[in-house]
UniProtKB/TrEMBL annotation:
Key words of the record: Membrane, Transmembrane, Transmembrane helix
Keyword Membrane: yes
Transmembrane segments: 21-41, 53-75
Protein's UniProt name: Membrane protein
Signal peptide: none
Keyword Transmembrane among UniProt keywords: yes
Pfam families reported for this sequence: DUF3311 (PF11755)
Length: 93
């Protein structure tokens, strides 16, 4: 038998928490929305002369930026909370 300490899932960072689920949804939403081409492969409605097919994709550039920022801030807050709970006093790399 080995005397190596047992590594828990939390120590490896593999614990699924509600915050991490929200982060995953924020990062997955743009992929799902843009890979489902049938939902936006049409010309109408037109917005300032631009067919729906194009302005929908451009809108997702802005939405994706916002969702990525939200995911980043949630991740940082989660990491700081985990560092505080583990006794590192909130120290981050």
């Amino acid at each position: 038998m080995s005397n190596a300490p047992e590594v828990t899932p939390e120590a490896r960072g593999t614990v699924v928490t509600p915050v991490r689920v929200v982060i995953a949804l924020c990062l997955a939403a743009p992929f799902v929305a843009l890979l489902w081409v049938g939902s936006y492969a049409k010309a109408t409605p037109v917005f300032i002369g631009i067919p729906f097919f194009y302005w929908y994709q451009m809108l997702w550039v802005i939405v994706s930026t916002g969702l990525t920022m939200i995911a980043y801030h949630l991740w940082r807050r989660d990491q700081q909370a985990r560092a505080t709970r583990s006794g590192n006093g909130g120290a981050s790399k």
